[in-house]
Amino acid sequence: MRITRQPLLECSPEVMTQLFRLTLSYDSGMTNAINDGPELLMTWVATENGKVLGWGLQQKEKWMQDLAMFYVSPKHRRKGIGTKILNRMKKDGYRRMTVRGWNRESRAFFSTAYYKDK
Predict the structure, then answer these.
(1) What's the pLDDT score for residue 117?
(2) Residue 12 phi, psi dihedral angles, 5° rounding
């Protein structure tokens, strides 16, 4: 598995297609973040053999960094992929985030992966 960090606008068309298919809906955080300013978006994408397994989307502004989206494909969960993406984000200088987990599984993941649920 490989994790790459790059601005959203520099992702290949193949990766972008997979990201949209995996996570995009009319009211998703990705749609809102893209509409607000795609030049402010950084991605960390976990791939294996050209297939996206999971990814994090960071919205960066002068006064804050916000984890706009975080996703691991359901059939690849519980294999350490999300933790590896978060570790890479920390290595790259990402230190704080606000977690708004929509379900028990996401809140449990973030609370055990170095972040406290508030």
Answers:
(1) 41
(2) -65, 155
As a whole number of angstroms, the distance between CA 36 and CA 40 comes to 9
Integer Cα distance of 52 and 73 in angstroms: 8
**Residue 66 · residue 98 · CB < 8 Å:** yes
Taking the C-alpha atoms of residue 30 and residue 27, their distance in angstroms, rounded to an integer, is 8
Average the pLDDT over each of 7-11, 89-93, 103-107 and give the range with the smallest value: 103-107
Residue spans of alpha helices (H) in 24-80? 29-36
Domains and CATH numbers, the chain: 2-112 (3.40.630.30)
Cβ pair 23, 45 in contact under 8 A: no
Backbone angles phi, psi at 35, to 5 degrees: -65, -30
Task: List the beta strands (DSSP E) in the chain.
Answer: 2-7, 41-48, 51-61, 64-72
CA separation for the pair 12, 81 (Å, rounded): 21
- pLDDT tens-digit readout, 25-34: 555 556 666 6
